[in-house]
Amino acid sequence: MHNLSDRFGKPFISLNCSAVPSSLWESTLFGTNKGSFTGAEDMPGLFEQADGGTLFLDEINSLDMNLLKAIEEKTIRRVGGKKNIHLDIRVISATNEVPDILLAEKRLREDLFYRIGVVQIDLPSLMERKEDIEVLVDHYLNFYNNAMNIYINGVQDDVLDCFKRYPWPGNIRELKNAVETAYNHVQSNRITLDDIPGRIRDYEEAPMAYVKSLNVDSLKDAVQEYEKKIIVRQLKNSDGKIAESARQLGISKQLLKYKMEKHKLR
């Protein structure tokens, strides 16, 4: 969206809101003026840094501060500052959970949502668009070939079939992690079943027998039940450690906690 707009060539600033402590939100986003607190210097925040371009706020549901004026009027004031700063920016935000659920559970401010939700794009989960898996695998092969200085020219057909059967509870991040894992085990110039994570490889023989054993009425219900099984198994393998389980599943700790609540896991 940024690269194909007339803002291309201007700054693209990205922030994972869940990674910023609440005590630093204001200074991180709006910047500081020298003397506003001990050790403070004149420092532009992310809004200023994105002037003329795009500010991307990921996992915006983690942000618990008043951004209404900044987003609606494109005006900010630095911490300790005495003047308003007018900006020309586009704000794009994202959440890894369904907005309607966040609103119903009071985990996303309604007034903020109605200001950022002008144009909404619902991105289906990887499970719902498995035709993209082959394209994404090729993309990550090119990425890791360059990043790791290792040349892998593809994956075996049974690996791709396995990828297309797996439900991907961790979505695209889990697929990326699976390809990276394979790079750390691969012994030839093609990725085999032995190179990918065991939870994905083990799924090859189990899904149909497992789905038939479920008392469900739809594929969506079957996927939810299998997702629950994967999470329970990983929590057991990690001795109940949420951070380690999230890392192994290729998802954020916040998303894992959400899924645990959804499945009523404790």
Report on the structure:
This protein is mainly alpha-helical. 43% of the residues lie in helices and 8% in strands. The chain is built from 13 helices and seven strands. The protein has helices at 25-30, 46-49, 68-73, 99-104, 110-116, 133-148, 157-165, 171-183, 198-201, 207-213, 219-237, 242-249, 253-262, and strands at residues 12-16, 31-32, 43-44, 54-58, 75-76, 85-86, 90-93. The strands form three sheets. Strands 1-4-7 form a three-stranded parallel sheet. Strands 2-3 form a two-stranded antiparallel sheet. Strands 5-6 form a two-stranded antiparallel sheet. A hairpin with an 8-residue loop joins strand 5 (75-76) and strand 6 (85-86). Helix 6 packs across helix 8, helix 11 (219-237) crosses helix 12 (242-249) and helix 12 (242-249) packs across helix 13. The radius of gyration is 22 Å and the shape is globular. The protein starts with 11 loop residues before the first strand and ends with a helix. The relative contact order is 0.08.
